[in-house]
Amino acid sequence: MTVENFREVNDMKTCPNCHNAVGDTDTFCAVCGAALQAAPTQNAPVYNTAPPYGANAAGGAPVKYCQHCGNPCDVNAAVCLKCGCAFTPTQPVKVDEPSIWLRIACFFIPVLGLIMFLVERDERPKCAKSYGMAALISVILQVVFVVLFYIIFFVIFGVVFSTAVTDYSYYMMML
After folding, report:
1. C-alpha–C-alpha distance, residues 72 and 52, integer Å
2. Domain boundary at 58, 88, 118, which?
3. Are residues 51 and 107 in the same domain?
4. What's the mean per-residue pLDDT of the chain?
């Protein structure tokens, strides 16, 4: 380490709370959130001209913008390094896209579709509706096929039986 590098390291600004290195323009520590300079008053005007979360005009790493001052900050930052406003924690978004394989399984096993509908109707309503519809369509088709089977069976059996009875009675009369 040269003397010049030693001076640069020693002249670096550090957080008074956690003693981590901070930038010269930072007003708050990125690690612990402690104020490095006087914080702005809470009555300061709020500028909501910031782009939405994740937008980055430069095309680099995703950033989030402070709702108070519009400063671009790291996505994982807890506080804005410029004004010190805390970011509200974001909840992960649950994907509500039904699986094609589960829909097929619910079609062939309607009880599974009913169970999946009841389990997921509050948290993932689109998935629940899809699984329930697959089970319902399956049950309706099964009922239709059973009714058609019995109708066809009795029609064919009735024709055959009536023909046999007619033939039998014809032969009995001939005797």
Report:
1. 11
2. 88
3. no
4. 74
